[in-house]
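> call design_seq(struct)
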């Protein structure tokens, strides 16, 4: 387990040093709110991420869907202890992106990073 915790610490440090700012919008469905006209609650969380134009070979293999690989615009690599869901969104450079694919990487059964393919 210590190896995974050390890897997470290294990833967090690298993200802090050279990662880009993104906002992860965690979206939960709830009761309909007449004031907002929505039945969802959005909780924005600021994160650091590596933004790549191409997904890793590992993410490409996990995609199992050529449409995902044709449609994505960026690959985001980050670490978070939050649960990431395809209904959540990512804000980056003033644009909101939907999540197409979430690919966790595990070490000693602990998620040490997530690669997320996104599109507008």
């Amino acid at each position: 387990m210590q190896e995974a915790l050390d890897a997470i610490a290294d990833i967090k440090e690298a993200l802090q040093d050279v990662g880009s700012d993104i906002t992860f919008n965690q979206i939960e469905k709830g009761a309909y709110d007449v004031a907002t006209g929505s039945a969802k609650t959005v909780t924005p969380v600021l994160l650091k991420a590596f933004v790549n134009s191409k997904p890793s070979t590992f993410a490409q293999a996990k995609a199992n869907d050529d449409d995902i690989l044709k449609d994505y615009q960026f690959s985001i690599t980050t670490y978070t202890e939050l649960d990431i869901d395809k209904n959540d969104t990512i804000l980056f450079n003033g644009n909101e992106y939907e999540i197409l694919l979430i690919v966790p990487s595990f070490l000693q059964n602990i998620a040490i990073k997530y690669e997320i393919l996104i599109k507008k």
